[in-house]
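Dear colleague,

Thank you for sharing your sequence with our group. We've completed the structure prediction you requested, and as agreed, I am returning the results in plain text so they can be pasted directly into your records. Please verify that the sequence below matches your submission; if there's any discrepancy, let me know and we will rerun it promptly.
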Amino acid sequence: METLDHVSVSAAEGVHGDYRGAMAAQKRSFRRQVSLIDRAAWEAALADAGADLAWYHSRRNLLLDGISLPHVAGTRVMIGASLVIEITRECDPCERMEGLAPGLRAAMIPDWRGGFLGRVVVDGDIAVGDEVKVI
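Please find the predicted C-alpha cells below.
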C-alpha cells in the first residue's frame, strides 16, 4: 500500500497503478473497481476494537473525510472537477482486518464501516483536499 497526494482514476484502470481496478475493468460486470472508506467510520471501528492504525491499513483506495455517503447502491459521488464513481455495494471487511487488531473485522461490519465499492463512470484526476459531493 502507498499513499499519494494526487492520482488519475479511470474506467479503464480504476485508480492508476492499482492492479485490482484494472482487472475489474476487464470483467463483464465489474462492481469492485474502486474502494472508498469514510474517515469517521474507520475511526469508529478502530475505537470499538481498541486499535490505532492509519487509514491505509483498511486496504481501501480512497479516504473520504467530511462527507457521509448514503448507504445505497447506485449513489453517484463526484470527486474533484470531474471524477464520478457509482457506488455498487458495501465493502465487507476481510479476515486481514482481524490480523491487524482483534475485533477490528467485527467493528467494521455495522453501518458500512468497511467502506464502499464502486465503478468509475467519468474519469478524472484527483488530489488530497478535493471536494467530494453526492450528485
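Summary note from our side: Residues 39-49 form the longest helix (11 residues).

Kind regards,
the structure core
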